[in-house]
């Protein structure tokens, strides 16, 4: 799965950002250029199949990571299963 690193302009509240795909041959040179332009590395590396998915995860402020962590534990997985089942039942009853 491709890895993306995000960079933000300081004090822009994550609104002025760009990203680089880390697997590229020019990653380190491009990263150096961004840092010289005043960008700062923001958060951890984002794993995503597409740049669009990476941006969506970046905008979610890593709530997806918390959900994945919760789902990886038996109690968290069970809670997610119950919540999603409830939502599905409600949707079916409304239809």
The structural domain count equals 2
Helix and strand composition category: alpha+beta
Helix and strand string, N-terminal first? EEHEHHH
Largest sheet: 3 strands, antiparallel
Shape: elongated
Work out the radius of gyration.
Answer: 18 Å
Low-confidence stretches: none
- What is the helix fraction of residues, given as a range? 40-55%
- Strand arrangement, major sheet: 2-1-3
Quick recap:
The chain has 95 residues and is of the alpha+beta class.
Structural summary, described in words:
By secondary structure, this protein is of the alpha+beta class. It has helices spanning 27-36, 51-59, 63-71, 74-94, and strands at 3-8, 17-21, 40-47. The protein has two domains: 1-61, no CATH class; 62-95, no CATH class. The protein is 52% helix and 20% strand. The longest helix has 21 residues, at 74-94.
Write the layout of secondary structure elements.
Elements: E1 3-8, E2 17-21, H1 27-36, E3 40-47, H2 51-59, H3 63-71, H4 74-94
Antiparallel strand pairs: 1-2, 1-3
């Amino acid at each position: 799965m491709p890895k993306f690193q995000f960079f933000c302009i300081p004090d822009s509240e994550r609104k002025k950002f760009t990203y680089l795909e880390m697997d590229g041959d020019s990653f380190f040179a491009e990263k150096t250029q961004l840092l010289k332009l005043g960008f700062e590395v923001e958060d951890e590396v984002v794993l995503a199949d597409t740049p669009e998915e990476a941006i969506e995860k970046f905008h979610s402020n890593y709530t997806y990571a918390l959900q994945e962590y919760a789902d990886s534990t038996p109690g968290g997985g069970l809670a997610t299963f119950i919540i999603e089942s409830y939502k599905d039942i409600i949707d079916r009853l409304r239809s």
